[in-house]
Structure formats: structure tokens, C-alpha cells
Design brief:
The chain has 199 residues and is an alpha/beta fold. The protein contains seven helices and seven strands; from the N terminus they run βαβαββαβαβαβαα.
């Protein structure tokens, strides 16, 4: 399965999502089953892997194929034109993270419009990320997107400091010594199960 994680806005958990989808695929299908290709010029996923140890390989786009069954792509920001079309054609699914803030949702709708312009060829799902646990903004955003007919993954990734700690340590969030880190991993496991069912 090829999954591209993309967004028109930075700071919405694109790399965090790519890393943890790859971690879930590796847990589910075994060591060597999954590779994460970092196509973002910021190389955030590669830097994450270099700071510690991830259970899957993170490579540059120029790397030779290794025969992995599953590929997660951390895309560059704001794919458009031929790049977006190629992502749609080459992927089984696009996962589009967005936080529930208005500016993020505005950027999301621009990407949805770009996907619609491709004639309905895009198989995609929106993932609500960085959702505050202390208010109902996630619920409001979900209702607004559902009203627009936007396909959403069932569940959300709650805002947790543990994800930042994981990035700094170079590990998946489940290796962070924090009770809330385990809850963050449970959020991504729920999403991972749905992504696999969509293949």
C-alpha cells in the first residue's frame, strides 16, 4: 500500500502522522515491511530518524527501492499541479492532516478544491490532528467538514507534548516515558487500522 501524507499548511502534524503511520504499519506487518520516503525539502522525517531509532527505514526520494510492501510518503508542503496529480496517481490513499483552527481548515479546503479539479480521481481522507482536549473545537471542525461532504477518518489525534518529545528523541511516541504518550499512540493505532482497511 502506498500512502501519501500531505497538506497545504505547515504545522498541522504532517510528519508526525507519516512517522506514526509507518510505525503502525511496521507493528502490524513486521520489520522490513514498511519504508517512509521523505520528499519534503525540510527533511523532517529524516532528521527525526537520525536523532534516535525508528523501527522502519526513512529514505530520500532518490533511494533505490528496497522491496518493502508498504510505502508512506511524507510529502513536501502544498503539492500542486503535476506534483499533486502524480501523488494522486501513484498513491492508494492520501491522508490530509489538519488542525481544527480556522486557518488550517481554510488551507484544507484549498487542497480539497485542487483534488476536485482532478476529476474525482483522488482517494483521500482528512485526519483531524493537534485537537485540544480542553475544548470542543475538534467536534466543531468535524461537523463543519462533514457538512461539506469532506471524507474524514473516524477519530482524531489529540494535542500532546509527547509527540514533540518523540521527535526530539528520534523515536515513535510509544517509546516516550509518559502516560499520555501511550494515549497518543492509541490515537494513531485507531487511524492506522482504518487506513489499512481502505486499501
Amino acid at each position: 500500500m502506498i500512502v501519501t501524507v500531505t497538506s497545504h499548511k505547515g504545522g498541522v502534524g504532517k510528519t508526525v502522522t507519516a512517522v506514526h503511520l509507518a510505525a503502525y504499519f511496521t507493528e502490524r506487518f513486521g520489520e522490513g515491511s514498511t519504508v517512509l520516503i521523505d520528499t519534503d525539502p525540510n527533511a523532517s522525517a529524516i532528521e527525526w530518524s537520525e536523532r534516535g531509532r525508528l523501527p522502519f527505514q526513512v529514505v530520500e526520494p532518490s533511494a533505490e527501492p528496497g522491496g518493502e510492501e508498504h510505502v508512506i510518503l511524507d510529502s513536501q508542503g502544498r503539492l500542486g499541479g503535476e506534483d499533486l496529480e502524480a501523488a494522486v496517481d501513484d498513491s492508494d490513499l492520501l491522508v490530509i492532516p489538519t488542525s481544527p483552527e480556522a486557518l488550517s481548515l481554510n488551507a484544507l479546503m484549498l487542497l480539497v478544491d485542487d483534488l476536485k479539479a482532478l476529476g474525482g480521481r483522488a482517494e483521500y481522507r482528512v485526519l483531524l490532528t493537534m485537537v485540544p482536549w480542553w475544548n470542543r473545537s475538534g467536534t466543531g471542525a468535524r461537523k463543519a467538514l462533514e457538512a461539506e461532504g469532506i471524507p474524514l477518518l473516524d477519530g482524531e489525534i489529540r494535542r500532546r507534548e509527547a509527540f514533540q518529545t518523540a521527535a526530539l528523541q528520534g523515536v515513535p511516541v510509544y517509546d516516550v516515558n509518559d502516560r499520555r504518550a501511550k494515549q497518543g499512540w492509541e490515537d494513531y493505532k485507531k487511524i492506522g487500522r482504518q487506513v489499512i482497511k481502505l486499501r
